[in-house]
Amino acid sequence: MLAFLELAGGSALRGGAFERRAWQLIGAGAALGVIVSVLGVLLQGAEAAGLSLWASLKGSVISSVLDSRFGWVWGVRAVLLAVALAVLALPRGRWRRAWLAGTVAYLVITPALAGHASVQSPVGVFFPVDVLHVLAASVWVGGIASIVLALPRATRALPPPERTGLLVEVIGRFSRLALACVLVLAVTGVVQAYIDVRTVHALTTTTYGELVLLKTGLLGLLIGLAAVNRERILPALRRLVAA
């Protein structure tokens, strides 16, 4: 959503109902992120010790997880998000913007830093590709969430002609941003799949390979929906504005 505010929202959406709603959703996302980070540490401990989730609520189990690379990466993530919640409640300023940007940057590298992308060869390729993959997916999904959950509030009070014009402007900008994200997702996904799968046989006979095929199918479906948006919905909105 931060990327949507900066790159697609434009001046028409700043300071109004959309921006207020977007910041509320960002705060809710940060709170959910704290919960997920804590649960991630607990589940990792439960899996490593062969215990249930509730049985893993022991100091020794949690300590052993936090001593691992996964544990400290996710622990730092929980702390950063908790501080971000407090920062969001304070007046806006450059330092608040810098803190949130740093937190977002850390969140983007968390999967690679805590997972096999930071240890599996070739790390110099796998790590940045994984980071770019997560970044593109986050910007794309965050933009869609902004359009679905925040944009209606900004357009509700506008007269129909102004509403249509605003939708054309905002969705048109996001459409270009989404296209760039899809291209990055496709390229980085191919690289990741090659590093992890290597052969066609592994692609069709392993769980990871089957998940790659499933993700590819879902991505194709979303690209189809995006094509409908670019080829039919946006031109229809532009015709309405011209009329």
Can you put this structure into words, describing what you see?
- This protein has helices spanning 2-9, 17-49, 59-66, 69-88, 94-114, 123-149, 151-155, 160-197, 200-205, 207-242.
- Helices cover 83% and strands 0% of the residues.
- The chain contains ten helices and no strands.
- Helix 2 crosses helix 3 (59-66) and helix 4 (69-88) packs antiparallel against helix 5 (94-114).
- It is mainly alpha-helical and 243 residues long.
Task: Name its key features.
243 residues, mainly alpha
Number of helices: 10
- β-strand number: 0
How far apart the termini lie comes to 32 Å
Query: From the alpha-carbon coordinates, what is the Rg to the nearest angstrom?
Result: 21 Å
Quick structural overview:
The protein has 243 residues and is mostly helical.
How are the elements arranged and paired?
Blueprint: H1 2-9, H2 17-49, H3 59-66, H4 69-88, H5 94-114, H6 123-149, H7 151-155, H8 160-197, H9 200-205, H10 207-242
Helix pairs in contact: 1-6, 1-8, 2-3, 2-4, 4-5, 5-6, 6-8, 8-10
